[in-house]
TrEMBL record:
InterPro entries in alphabetical order: DUF3060
Signal peptide residues on this chain, from the entry's feature table: 1-28
Pfam families, alphabetized: DUF3060 (PF11259)
Keywords associated with the record: Signal
Top-level taxon of origin: Bacteria
Protein name: DUF3060 domain-containing protein
Length: 128
């Protein structure tokens, strides 16, 4: 039970506050959660296919599995254990930071992206 320091004259309010907080905690810890705005993904445990539609692809979070299709001019990944597949423009910048992120890319022709990797265990490789 919450301390009466917050609700000294209303102990019932303290109990209600605790009960109200429990569902919020359960939601925060369950399954996948996150947001998407255009080609920007932020969250945990999401599995999505996203059309870049000419927008930069951005992923931040943990354990996301994202496939970007369409016209992707760049990719930025931050976080842990994300798995990203992406179709990039020729010479596109790819920036990866964090831990154990894996990016698999493809481009039209033989052009390669410009890759920058920071962190531990991150990998960027062409699709096979």
């Amino acid at each position: 039970m919450l301390s009466n320091a917050f609700f000294p004259k209303f102990p019932v309010m303290a109990a209600i506050g605790l009960v109200a907080a429990v569902p919020a905690l359960a939601f925060a810890q369950s399954g996948s959660a996150g947001t998407r705005s255009g080609a920007t993904i932020d969250g945990v445990g999401q599995t999505l296919t996203v059309d870049c539609e000419g927008r930069a692809a951005v992923v931040s979070g943990t354990e996301n599995e994202i496939s970007f299709v369409g016209d992707c001019p760049s990719l930025t990944v931050t976080g842990t254990d994300n798995r990203i597949r992406i179709a990039l423009r020729a010479g596109a910048p790819v920036n990866v930071s964090g831990v154990d992120n894996v990016v698999t890319w493809s481009t039209a022709g033989k052009a390669r992206p410009r890759v920058s990797i920071q962190g531990v265990g991150n990998r960027v490789a062409p699709a096979r």
